[in-house]
Structures are given as C-alpha cells and as structure tokens.
C-alpha cells in the first residue's frame, strides 16, 4: 500500500494523527550522527543499539535506524499492525505513558507538529536514554517549556540539518521546514579529538520528576539499607490474591489495571502527605529527599513488576507452544517490558505484539526443526525432484541445496554428544542439553500440529541408557487415548535414532512443504509426497495460528 493510500485509509478510520513519514535524507542525517557517537572507535561497523520511536507510525524509521532492540509508542492501531514483528509496542499514548523506566540507548521522534512542544518537552524531561533525536519545526528554539526541559536535564543540543517536507522525496508533502535536532543527555568528554561517552546520565529523569512533584528537602540521610520494594510487592500480591472474584467478574486486564492504579495512587498519596510536613521536622527525623526518592522509585518499580508478572502467568498457554530458543527470546522481550506502565492500552498493545510474533514463530520453528533433522539418510525427494546429491555434498556437517523433499519417519542424527557420563565418565548417563532441546522442540511442534503433548515430561527428566528406547506420548484430543508420538534412542557414540509416528511425520512434512512454498494445496502435497489425498487434506494448514481472542479481550469488549 502506498503512503497516500495508507493516509486515506487512516483518515477513513479516524486514525490519522498527523502521520508524516520521516524522509530518507532526515534518517540518513540521524544514522550518520549515531554512528559518530555510538560506534566503536576501533571499528567502522554501524553500532547495534536499542531505540524507542515515540509516534513510530508503521515502524519504517526504527527499521532504518537500528538492528538492535526496537520499541515503539504509536496511537494508530492500523499503523501498529503494519510494523515489523521485531518492533515491540510499549504504549499507545505518549501522554498516558511514563518514560522514566523505559531504558534504551536512543529515543527518536517525528512528533505531530500541532503540539510538538508538549510532546518534545515530555520526552526530554522523562527520557532514560543517552541520545534523543527530534524532527521538529524550526521554531522549537522559541518554545520556553521545551527549553526549560532541556536546561533541567543539563542537556547539549545540536541542529544536525534542516529539511523541508515540501520536496519530491517526501512520502507525504507539507509546507513545513524542520530541524533534525540531537539532544545529548549522557556524560561524555573529549580527549585528543576523540569523544568518550558514559552510560551515566547528567540528570536522572526520576530525580527530576520527584523534585517537580514533591516538596524538596535539604537534609541528607543514609538510605543504603532501604528496601521498600519487597514491602510494596507483598502488598500488591495480597491485593491480587484477595481480589480474585473481581478479576473473574470484571475481566483480567481491567481488574489488574484498576488494582495497579489504586496501589499507585495510594503510594503517591502517602509520599505527598509526607512531603507536606514541616521541613524542619523532617530534617530532625533524618528524612531527606534522597531517601524519599529512592523509596518511591523502588516501590513503583516493584509495583509494575508484580502486575506484569501476574499477567505473564496468563501467557503460558501461548509461550509453552514455543520452541526452546524462541520461548527464551520472547520471555526476554516480555521481561524488558515490565518497566512500562500497567494500563489496558499497554497490555493490549503487548498482546497484539505477542500474537503477531508467535504466529510467525510457530511457522519458523517448524521449518527450523525439519531442517535440523535434514540429513542424507533421512531425506526422501518429492516425485518431481529427480536431482540427487553426491556423498561429498553432505560432508563436514554441510547440507546441500535440496529442492523439494520430505523426511522419512525414521531419523538418524549424528550429534557431538548424545549422553553425558560426567567429567570422568563414571556417572549415570544424562541426556545432553542440545539433544534434550531438540526432543522438547519436537514435542512442542507436535503439540502445535494437534498432537497433545503438553503434559508429557521433558526429555531431560527421563531415564536414559545407551541404546535403550524412550517413548514420548501424545493424547488424542478426540478420544482421550494416549499413543506414541515418537521414540528415541541415544547411543554412547553420539548417534540419536528417532522413530516418529507416521501420522505426525505426515503433518510435519506437509506443513514444511507448505511453509517452504513447495506445495500450494493438499492435492499437490498428495501427489508430490505419494500419500492419499484424504491424508494430505487432514494435514494441510494444521500448524497452530492464534487470533486476537487467544489472549485477552479488547478494551471495548468489557475487559
């Protein structure tokens, strides 16, 4: 869809929040500056860094600026849906979002110009990043609130370039002249012409926020042993445990969000009342701004973590369907999101990201699993594939380029080590972790193909002896009967032998062929793989797909 068509669609859905895509020239100016500041002085490679785009649109700027972790705040759901799956949406409304705990290296924003001042001021005051890049009208230098925010952060500003949106290369033209402004918040120094940077910010954004919202005190107290985080976590957990009926009746998201807002309101109210006391009295009691700020910061952090963890527990039916490495990647992303505000909009944005990514991961991990088991002894060509491969094509762990194939239901894999007998070789054998991951991933993919394996013990928890078969079962979802999904034999020399249920292998092969684009329908699968059409029809397009209803209902559905 062209940008003009996209803008028209946004207008039709009342979601055009001044979407003016950043031009390539503007992004090039930002990229060049980032490389000069963040790159390794001994390398000419473009640096990998985390970035947050506030008002990210369809995510094109993030994709151009970094290969590192990408985070976005975007109000238009149509644009969020168009973002690459590597982008994590951490909020939908900047002014309903607190940026203090969103730690990243760079914040980028091309804000709506009708209120760029308030937008930019909030970013500058709350940014927990080394660098901010703003694409803003040239009149920004006359905005007193923005200048005050820059001064409060003791930041350095520099105009990198000046551009106009009224040029042929602009995807959406407007008669607006803008500056590409870099705002630097980190401590750094120069020595012999080279810039040295620090991870430490000149002014902590939380300290600035605390000073603005609470009465300043001049006394200093020792707060090294202060640990209020555990206290607030315990209080929040108690609220959740005693409010199960409300969670059931009002919906998980709304109930948890209400609990969080109530806890946060009570917490801030307590500190406001403390700071309202006589400063002399507080000084006599040894209470200081430093101690209060640290206490409040830890408590807010603990509060967010409690509620996000409670929500993540409800993600298990989805995350349990991910393969080992994929699941860890997703959980790391979710853990990184625990610092954002716990609001219904943020929850649903994170759920949308999870669904979008997991559907792609389900397909990717099936392909990866089959390719891990693709060895010469295991491969059967499609009928239309008459190409054969010489023995040397498979040497040294290589896999030749094969056109259209399926796997035999009997698999032989040469592993570096299948069983571990301990350092001295005198212990009872345990399964090597790499082999265990492969077997667990086979169970996970089988489950996604309709073979219920979620209640089966993981591979590493089973008893293993060299050459002895170990059975992995599934439960038929229609009859409730258990049957063998596959059997595995691990040998002392490092070989792993698998015998896979033929119905499971049929589904695995058909879906592998579909996802690779080798077969377009069940009839083609039946012809190429020499299987009955009915069997191919029962296997085609069976890999798991999640819908929006899979996790949580939308806010307008009474969640």
UniProtKB/TrEMBL annotation:
UniProt keyword list: Methyltransferase, Transferase
Signal peptide per UniProt: none
Pfam families membership: DUF4942
Domain of life: Bacteria
InterPro entries per the UniProt record, alphabetical: DNA_methylase_N6_adenine_CS (IPR002052), DUF4942 (IPR031339), SAM-dependent_MTases_sf (IPR029063)
DUF4942 domain ranges (all copies): 302-515
Entry keyword annotation includes Methyltransferase: yes
Name of the protein in question: DUF4942 domain-containing protein
Provenance organism: Marinobacter salarius
Classification of source organism: Bacteria, Pseudomonadati, Pseudomonadota, Gammaproteobacteria, Pseudomonadales
């Amino acid at each position: 869809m062209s940008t003009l068509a996209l803008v028209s669609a946004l207008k039709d859905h009342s979601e055009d929040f001044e979407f003016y895509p950043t031009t390539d020239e503007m992004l090039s100016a930002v990229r060049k500056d980032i490389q000069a500041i963040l790159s390794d002085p001994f390398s000419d490679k473009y640096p990998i860094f985390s970035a947050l785009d506030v008002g990210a649109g369809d995510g094109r700027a993030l994709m151009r600026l970094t290969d590192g972790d990408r985070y976005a705040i975007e109000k238009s759901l149509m644009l969020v849906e168009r973002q690459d799956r590597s982008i994590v949406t951490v909020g939908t409304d900047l002014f309903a979002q607190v940026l203090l705990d969103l730690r990243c290296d760079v914040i980028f924003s091309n804000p709506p110009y009708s209120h760029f001042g308030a937008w930019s001021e909030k970013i500058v005051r709350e940014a927990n990043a080394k660098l901010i890049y703003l694409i803003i009208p040239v009149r920004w230098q006359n905005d007193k609130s923005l200048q005050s925010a820059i001064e409060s952060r003791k930041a350095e500003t520099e105009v990198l370039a000046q551009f106009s949106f009224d040029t042929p290369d602009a995807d959406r033209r407007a008669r607006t002249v803008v500056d590409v402004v870099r705002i630097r918040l980190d401590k750094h120094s120069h020595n012999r012409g080279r810039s040295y940077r620090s991870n430490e910010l000149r002014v902590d954004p939380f300290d600035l926020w605390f000073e603005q919202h609470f009465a300043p005190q001049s006394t200093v107290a020792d707060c090294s042993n202060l640990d209020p985080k555990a206290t607030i976590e315990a209080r929040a957990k108690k609220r959740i445990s005693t409010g199960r009926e409300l969670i059931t009746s009002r919906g998980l998201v709304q109930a948890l969000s209400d609990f969080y807002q109530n806890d946060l309101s009570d917490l801030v109210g307590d500190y406001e009342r403390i700071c309202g006391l006589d400063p002399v009295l507080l000084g006599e009691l040894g209470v200081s701004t430093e101690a209060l700020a640290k206490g409040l910061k830890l408590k807010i952090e603990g509060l967010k973590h409690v509620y996000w963890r409670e929500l993540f527990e409800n993600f298990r039916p989805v995350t349990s369907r991910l393969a080992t490495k994929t699941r860890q990647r997703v959980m790391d992303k979710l853990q990184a999101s625990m610092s954002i505000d716990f609001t219904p909009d943020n929850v649903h944005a994170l759920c949308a990201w999870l669904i979008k990514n997991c559907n792609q991961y389900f397909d990717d991990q099936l392909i990866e699993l089959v390719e891990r088991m693709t060895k010469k002894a295991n491969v059967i060509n499609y009928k239309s594939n008459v190409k054969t491969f010489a023995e040397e094509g498979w040497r040294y762990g290589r896999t030749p380029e094969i056109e259209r194939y399926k796997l035999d239901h009997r698999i032989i894999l040469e592993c570096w080590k299948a069983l571990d007998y301990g350092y001295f070789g005198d212990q009872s054998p345990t399964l090597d972790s790499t082999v265990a991951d492969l077997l667990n991933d086979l169970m996970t993919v089988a489950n996604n193909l309709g073979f219920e394996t979620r209640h089966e013990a993981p591979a590493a928890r089973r008893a293993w002896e060299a050459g002895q078969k170990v059975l992995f079962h599934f439960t038929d979802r229609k009859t409730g009967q258990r049957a063998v999904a596959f059997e595995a034999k691990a040998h002392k020399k490092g070989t792993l032998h698998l015998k896979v249920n033929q119905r499971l292998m049929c589904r695995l092969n058909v879906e592998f062929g579909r996802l690779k684009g080798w077969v377009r329908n069940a009839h083609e699968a039946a012809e190429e793989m020499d299987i009955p059409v009915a069997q191919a029809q029962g296997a085609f397009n069976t890999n798991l797909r999640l819908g929006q209803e899979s996790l949580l209902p939308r806010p307008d559905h009474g969640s």
